[in-house]
Amino acid sequence: SGQGLGAMGRIVLPGEPLIDGATALRPWRDSDLGPLVAACRDPEIPRWTGVPRGYGESDGRAYLISRHDAVHANASAPFAVVEAPDGRLLGSVALMRFAWEHARAEAGYWLALEARGQGHATRALALICAWGFRTLSLERIDLLAATANLASQRVAARAGFTREAVLRSYMKTGDGERADMVRFGLLRGEAP
């Protein structure tokens, strides 16, 4: 189904969840608002990602509305990470920053505090990458993790990514701090 995408891909999120063991990926729903806001209030999330500090209901609502436009514009493939098969919200994983002419995208993720340390991030990352290679005909997926975020770097390594470079003062976090980022890459055929 990913054949012949040409220079401009077309993102269609799957109708059925992507599942690996206790971890499932599914499209976001409006009913995810409460758990989304609760999860993003954990200070570790804005510390390492672009999610703003002091995340509130209006932030959550704006995100849930914007996801439709992002998919429609072929700009992002956002998934809710949930307990399989259709349980509580655990986090977020997405493919974004597509460079369609280069068959490339970037993966990003976060997990709610109580979902960490159980393999959900590694499984979610592996699921979305396999889906991206298979369905969107990607050849490369990038991943950026803050140099101090060792847990996220371990997730990348376990999902088969290769550590390639340190990008100095690369992004501004949700805390408003400049962060050095480790760039990882995963090529088609390298996924474990």
Task: Please render the helix and strand layout as text.
Blueprint: E1 18-20, E2 23-26, H1 33-40, H2 44-48, H3 57-72, E3 76-83, E4 89-99, E5 104-111, H4 120-135, E6 140-146, H5 150-158, E7 162-172, E8 178-187
Parallel strand pairs: 5-6
Antiparallel strand pairs: 1-2, 2-3, 3-4, 4-5, 6-8, 7-8
Helix pairs in contact: 1-3
Give structural notes.
The protein is 28% helix and 32% strand. It is built from 5 helices and 8 strands; from the N terminus they run ββαααβββαβαββ. It has an 8-stranded mixed beta sheet with strand order 1-2-3-4-5-6-8-7, sandwiched between helices. α1 (33-40) packs across α3. The protein is globular, with a radius of gyration of 16 Å. It starts with 17 loop residues before the first strand and ends in a 5-residue tail after the last strand. 35% of the residues are buried.
Summary of the model, kept short:
The protein is of the alpha+beta class.
**SSE string:** EEHHHEEEHEHEE
Q: Mean of residue pLDDT? A: 93
Number of helices: 5
Provide the low-confidence segments as ranges. 1-7
Strands in their spatial order, largest beta sheet: 1-2-3-4-5-6-8-7
Strand content: 25-35%
> Tell me about the biggest sheet?
8 strands, mixed
Shape: globular
C-alpha Rg, in Å? 16 Å
The secondary structure category is alpha+beta
Q: State the end-to-end CA separation.
A: 22 Å
Helix content: 25-40%
Question: How many E strands?
Answer: 8
Could you name the key traits of this structure?
single chain; 192 residues; alpha+beta; eight-stranded mixed β-sheet; 5 helices; globular; disordered N terminus
